[in-house]
Write a structure and sequence with these properties.
Blueprint lengths: L10 H6 L10 E7 L6 H16 L4 E7 L9 H6 L5 E5 L11 H4 L5 H6 L2 H13 L1 E6 L6 E5 L4 E2 L5 E2 L4 E4 L4 H6 L3 E4 L2 H10 L4 E4 L4 H4 L7 E7 L4 E6 H5 L3 H35 L3 E4 L2 H22 L4 H8 L4
Parallel strand pairs: 1-2, 1-3, 8-9, 8-10, 11-13
Antiparallel strand pairs: 3-12, 4-12, 5-10, 5-11, 6-7
Helix pairs in contact: 2-11
Length: 330
């Protein structure tokens, strides 16, 4: 029997008649993405969908039913927990309130393949199962750091360290504490709001990977990028745990192998895309501010220390175990 799912307050989702994995000859997985279809992360996810649908014909199929216009990105963690849809392309940083241990993905300086080989995926799925009713299949589009992007040239403090005092930075839960530490005024808002905020001078910059910046059109307003990059993109392909457990063993095997293959291919593609996009942005007039020597070291240590300390403050239970697998000293 197909279980119909509804999302109170989101008429668009209800109109789509979202359903859980159907108990029929072919399992149907309804998927939602945290960015609109034209943004690179959603386009890359379509590659995973195509791979599963090709290998899973007659067994399992994925249907992408929408993006943040269907379920707002900031509500997707709860939507996944409650089974509103089956599969989500969703960064761990957008629902750290549910699973603080998701911080480990952004706080890692290892690539997704190394983490999987070290048992990181199995380890981190313990809190995702328990706290978010979610099963993580893959850490996708890895190999990309976040950068600081500004409309005005950042200053320095009396010790010569980067200082964002006086700048209003669009923020998210993932990097809000780091921006505060650098002296910025945080303006928490979704990615869909940033273009208008930059255009109207509501914010003076943001932290974001290279990939996707031009898709949103933010490069029209941004003038500076601070190097080095910090954290790691934490985009996950995950499923509602009940939906995952309701799949046939054959469907699970197809999804698992496709997830491993896509994790590798999306990492390689993302490295190449970041290089190409970086050059386009430089050619378009964005200026690099390069932190070097002690300034660079302090910047990176500050970023990662804040990330892991935040996890420890929220729930120290798995902090040491996760950090031992997900992070290596500089």
């Amino acid at each position: 029997m197909t279980k119909l799912l509804t999302l109170k307050g989101f008429a668009a989702a209800a109109a789509l008649g979202l359903s859980s994995v159907a108990a029929q000859a072919e399992d149907i997985i309804r998927a939602v993405t945290f960015v609109p279809a034209q943004v690179s992360y959603a386009r890359n996810f379509q590659g995973f969908v195509d791979l599963v649908n090709e290998r899973g014909e007659g067994v399992v199929q994925i249907q992408v039913i929408g993006g943040p216009e269907t379920i707002p990105a900031e509500r997707m963690g709860e939507a996944q927990k409650n089974g509103i849809a089956d599969m989500f392309l969703l960064p761990a940083g957008l629902y750290l309130n549910l699973v603080p241990e998701g911080e480990a993905f952004a706080g890692s300086n290892l690539d997704p393949m190394a983490l999987r080989a070290a048992g990181g995926m199995e380890l981190v799925n313990k809190p995702f199962h328990e706290k978010a009713n979610a099963h993580v299949l893959a850490h996708v589009d890895g190999g990309a750091n976040f950068f600081l992007w500004t409309t005005e040239k950042p200053g320095a403090d009396e010790n010569g360290q980067l200082n964002l005092e006086g700048l209003r930075m669009r923020s998210s839960p993932l990097f809000r504490s780091f921006l505060e530490e650098l002296g910025a005024t945080n303006v928490v808002q979704s990615a869909s709001e940033v273009y208008t905020s930059l255009e109207r001078g509501v914010v003076d910059g943001t932290a974001f990977p290279v990939t996707g910046l031009r898709d949103f059109g933010w490069d029209k307003f941004l003038k500076y990028r601070v190097n080095p990059g910090f954290f790691q993109t934490d985009v996950l392909v995950s499923m509602n745990l009940d939906s995952w457990e309701g799949l046939s063993d054959e469907a699970k095997e197809i999804l698992n192998q496709a997830a491993i293959d896509h994790e590798i291919s999306s990492y390689e593609a993302n490295i190449a895309l970041n290089e190409a996009e970086s050059q386009i942005l430089l050619d378009g007039g964005i200026e690099n501010i390069e932190l070097t020597g002690e300034q660079r070291q302090i910047f990176l240590e500050k970023a990662y220390d804040i990330s892991w300390q935040r996890l420890k403050d929220r729930d120290p239970t798995m902090h040491d175990e996760l950090k031992a697998v997900f992070f290596t000293d500089f």
